[in-house]
Amino acid sequence: MTDIFNEIEEDIRRERMARIWKRFGPVIVAVALFIVLGVAGWRGWEWYSANKAQEAGGSFEAAMALSESGDRAKAEEALTALGQSGPSGYALLARFRAATELATTDRAAAAAKFEEISQDISAPALARDLARVRSALILVDTGSQSDVASRVEALSVPGNAWRHTARELMALAAWKAGNAADTRRWAQELVSDIEAPPGARARGQVLLDMADSAAPSAP
Length: 219
Hints:
Elements: H1 2-68, H2 72-85, H3 88-102, H4 107-118, H5 125-142, H6 145-152, H7 163-176, H8 180-192, H9 198-214
Helix pairs in contact: 1-2, 1-3, 2-3, 3-4, 4-5, 5-6, 5-7, 6-7, 7-8, 7-9, 8-9
């Protein structure tokens, strides 16, 4: 008698499973297929990304070898190409390095390249700020005080990672422009910041002394 009840119960379960499969079978198959294809696609993308990163690393090393051999023109050309087509990390690194290579022959063009990076919203904020600093560093020698200020004055605020460098560049640009008052202002901010690196504070003190010595004597 127990066997009969077991068989009846088994038949009922099979009938329920048949109804469930008939109703939801296509959905179950579709979900399973989606998972399989998704995993396969992800693994494929991982392989592709790793392969592209390896290729970009080789291209970057080749460009560095060109630079070290003295062929900066070809190095800059190779780095520019990598900056346009390489994976995001290597592309950004290549753009920085290409601008650095260009600075040896055309400082104005190099400053413009750094400025392009600083305006690229796809780049991390810290990298964009570094590009502003690099552009200003060139413009201290080739541009005006306002050129430098337009790049880094906004970075001089407390808490900004580049504030010490920004203040030093602002003081240098002011000194080269013959503006002793602004030199004193920015140098004083640098010297007074206890978080500034010792070297930056020492250079700030030199600029502050120079600005004070340039001030007109009291009658």
